[in-house]
Amino acid sequence: MTNIPTIPLLVNGEKVQSTSGKYLDVLNPADQSVVAKVPLCTLDEVDAAIANAKEAYKTWRNTGINRRMRVMLKLQELVRDNTEKLAALITKEHGKTLPDAIGEVGRGLEAIEHACSVASMQMGEYSENAATGVDVYTLIQPLGVVAGITAFNFPVMLPCFMFPYAVAAGNTFILKPSEQDPSASLFLAELALEAGLPPGVLNVVHGGPEVAQRLCEHPDIKAVSFIGSTHVGTEVYRRASDNGKRCQSMMGAKNHCVVMPDSDKEVAINQLIGAAFGAAGQRCMATSVAVMVGETREWVDELVEKTKSLKVNVGTDNSADLGPLVSPSAKQRVEGLIQSGVDEGANLVLDGRNYVVPGYEKGNFVGPTIFTDVKKGMRIYDEEIFGPVLVIVNVDTLDEAIAFINDNPNGNGVAIFTQDGGVARHFQNNIDVGQVGINVPIPVPVAWFSFTGSRGSKLGDLGPNGKQAFSFWTQTKTVTARWSQHNRSVNTTISMK
């Protein structure tokens, strides 16, 4: 392949090429072809982006809320108009199917649309005569220069969970997308500039751990948002916190779905299959554990047979149900975990290893995989697989299911399928997981509600989206004021001309 593009940085409103001389190949997961080269930018380049953002903050923070809101309104229009182009970039570099990619852009749009509500979200409080002659009021103000570090699995949606809220609230932003699929994130940022963000308000840098570390430690960065693995997220949170920054880290998961005997069998099975294998399982909210209660263990054979009908192919095939994993190393890791399940005594009832798509023999394909007889202590249960692997656990009662799930250290999401409202209420009140789905297998709420993963899946008090997002990217200043009234003889008439 000739004329392979080199992905630029976005600094002070301009696309600039890195001078580092160090590049990584961006690969198409379906065939390993090199589709772009992404730089590992220098720390001086990161510092320059931060310096530009700091300068832009001086004026952007004082820009009227109505203007900032209008930029977000224009951005959602541009993203909507460019949905297919964004989706094509996602599929080319990430591998997910085009319908999945279009769905991702739609979820990102929800977040941008909610950021348009900044005018009401940034209103303070006022109390006249809180004490005699004393007024007290609050100001909701931006933090300054802030940063976001995103994972590969949602290169459009995850940045949308961050920068629209941050810049709408008056901050300036440094985005470091994943080096595995950066083009869609960069194009999204370009659309934000086209929508009216002034130079320096939104900047994009590329790189690995050194760049992330710099964002966590630079004295001019006031807050860091991270979405990715538990290992990296824990380190980001520690470094950012040690350097006095506000930080949120949304991390790994092991999401369970409880299937009750009274649930609609066909609906539960179909929804479970989609939640487990959509996006090839490469999402932090994927359902990776099915907890079959009582007689529902007899439904497993039907679940397996329906799963066999899923089509695995390149993401550009609109009829495909799942595409390849993002990289050869991801495929190797997932297949290694599948083998560990076999070695540790789980029952492999559907094996997706060594899956070959004709014409794409070098692709990172793993077919849908299902284990039964899974127990705690097995790696396939204890670890986040991040691939198209569903493990099945059998229990006798709902309370046993609740105790089993609550014993897992993660708390991103959980679901239950039932037609009994009392069962659902008992479940939602006793399960110790931050996001609960009732007959909804992936309980990610609409964007005007906050993402509320908990326990081992989250570090920091505030999550992305919703009211919590505006709270994370702003600070509250309280003003207590008394004005003397002794000089009443002065003419205080104000001209309205």
TrEMBL record:
Enzyme Commission (EC) number: 1.2.1.27
Domain of life: Bacteria
Keyword annotations of the record: NAD, Oxidoreductase
Residue stretches spanning the membrane: none
PROSITE patterns: ALDEHYDE_DEHYDR_CYS
A Pfam family recorded for this sequence: Aldedh
GO molecular function, one term: methylmalonate-semialdehyde dehydrogenase (acylating, NAD) activity
Aldehyde dehydrogenase domain location: 17-479
GO terms for biological process, alphabetical: L-valine catabolic process; thymine catabolic process
Record family assignment: Belongs to the aldehyde dehydrogenase family.
Name of the protein described by the UniProt record: methylmalonate-semialdehyde dehydrogenase (CoA acylating)
Originating organism: Oligella urethralis DNF00040
